[in-house]
């Protein structure tokens, strides 16, 4: 059933916003141009173009706006950037695109960037989907495999060296890593020809300027987060697929305790592909939270 319901439709509109320092931030949109704005922070190394089910987006009256993080897709690189820098970019971007303080979806490695925006009071209600958890947090010290523990320790103690390690990745290596770490329920989605083509295009675009954008993202996500989840004051829903074994040691159970009032959903029969198999449920819940806010 997951593969039948999963879609990653091409965007209806694309463009770039020039930031105050002259950099460009690339964007893509789905749904009605006058719909309710929802910002999407996409996953690891993927460009703005990897969307979700357009039918669900349009039925809910959502204007879904995805953004290339610096160095990915068409967005200008910003070496040494921080979570706070990204939040500043989105604050300016939201004004330029008329989004006000948009409800936001953070998927996979995009999740900590979405959380950073919420912590900086840039965005509204938040859906965190298949989130890259803060695995450098002390709670997970004994929960990680030795090889991953070593990478995390390097990201914390020697971030420049870790960034050079992650800069060795390519689009093909990223795809192989994702496929090798995915449950069978996810592979039924990822290996669907239409989805596979969309994902491959998004990875190729994510690495179009080289690996530096992905490497910086990964050092930030894998190290200690430079914001406090406990200070996030907007409604937060945390979504994981039950079969997900790669994004969080405990499918967000610890993360949920760190974000006041957050609601955790664990979906059966799917893993990290839950954004695409349950688009309608995730977005509908997000709109309800935003209306209450």
Tell me the domain tally: 1
What string gives the helices and strands in order? HEEEHEHEHEHHHHHHEHEHH
Mean of residue pLDDT values = 96
> In DSSP terms, counting alpha (H) and pi (I) runs of 4 or more, how many helices?
13
Number of strands: 8
Question: Could you characterize the architecture of this molecule?
Answer:
The protein is globular. It has a single domain, classed as 3-Layer(aba) Sandwich (Rossmann fold), CATH 3.40.50. An eight-stranded mixed beta sheet has the order 1-2-4-3-5-6-7-8, with helices on both faces. The chain has 13 helices and eight strands. The protein is α/β, with parallel strands linked by helices and 293 residues long. α4 links the parallel β5 and β6. The mean pLDDT is 96. α5 crosses α6.
What would the keywords be for this entry?
293 residues; alpha/beta; Rossmann fold; eight-stranded mixed beta sheet; 15% strand
Summarize the structure.
With 293 residues, the chain is an alpha/beta fold. The chain is 41% helix and 15% strand.
Question: What is the topology?
Answer:
Blueprint: H1 2-5, E1 13-18, E2 24-30, E3 36-41, H2 54-59, E4 62-67, H3 83-96, E5 103-107, H4 111-119, E6 126-129, H5 146-157, H6 159-166, H7 171-180, H8 184-190, H9 193-206, H10 212-222, E7 236-241, H11 253-258, E8 263-267, H12 274-277, H13 279-292
Parallel strand pairs: 3-4, 3-5, 5-6, 6-7, 7-8
Antiparallel strand pairs: 1-2, 2-4
Helix pairs in contact: 3-4, 5-6, 6-10, 7-9
